[in-house]
Structures are given as structure tokens and as C-alpha cells.
Amino acid sequence: MEEALAAHLLATAGLTALVGNRVNWNARPQASATPSVVLTRVGGTPDYTMAGASGLVETRVQIDAWGKTYSSAIGVSRAVKTVLSGFSATVGAIMFQGSFLESERQSFEQGSGGEEFHRVSLDFIIWHKET
After folding, report:
1. What is the CA radius of gyration of the chain?
2. What would the pLDDT profile of 35-45 be if each residue is shown by its tens digit?
3. Is 111 strand, coil or helix?
4. Do residues 108 and 68 make contact, with C-beta atoms less than 8 angstroms apart?
5. Phi and psi of 12, rounded to 5°?
6. Is-above-0.85 flag for pTM?
7. Which CATH number, 3.40.50.1980, 3.40.50.700, 3.30.2000.30, 1.10.10.10, labels domain 2-130?
8. Could you name the domain of life of the organism this protein comes from (predicted)?
């Protein structure tokens, strides 16, 4: 799921116009440029029926939109929401059956060199299965 989700984001012109190829899992590379996107799989729960595992998984993904200004972080978060809110399609071997924004938060951090970073965190619930 992780590779397919990143590939889908990177295949979207509106988002890549803002972040280029700066879509990473789990951490923003040290000294990397912003704006950027960091995805973190926060949890996942497989679905079961009385006959056993259905193959469907509910995964929570936190998507952080980073920017040196508030407006750049907000712009990236809006682009991510446009791409993923209500998204369903097959990407590679993964069938995304639904992607739903559950929550949104904003924060500000100061880097060790005094630089400022704004972050908008989006929590998506993504239902998916391998095809």
C-alpha cells in the first residue's frame, strides 16, 4: 500500500508542482527542501468475515505537509486533500476502496539552525486490498 500511495501522490501534477518529488515515508530527510510531504502509517486493522480474512485493510495514514511559511504548508495540505479525499482506484497491485479525511491539525517548529517550519497534519483512513 505504501508504495502505491506515494506513487499516486507523485503522479498528481497539482501536488508535484508544489513539492516536486519530496514525498517521503516516516521522516523528512535532514536538510531537505520544503515544501514537502511526509507520510506515516499510524495503524492498520485487517477486516474479517465469518469465513476468515477478507483481504481488506483499514489503515490510518498521517500526512504531514511541511513548509517554511504557513501559506506554503496550507497550500500543500489543500493539494493533498484534493488528491485523497474520497479517492478510490487501483494503483499497481493495490485497490484503494476509499480514502477519508478524519482530522487535521496545525503546528509550528523551529529547526536547530533557527529556521522555521510550519506543518499541517492530516489523518486519513484508507481502505485498501491487494488485487
Report:
1. 15
2. 999 999 999 99
3. coil
4. no
5. -100, 115
6. yes
7. 3.30.2000.30
8. Bacteria
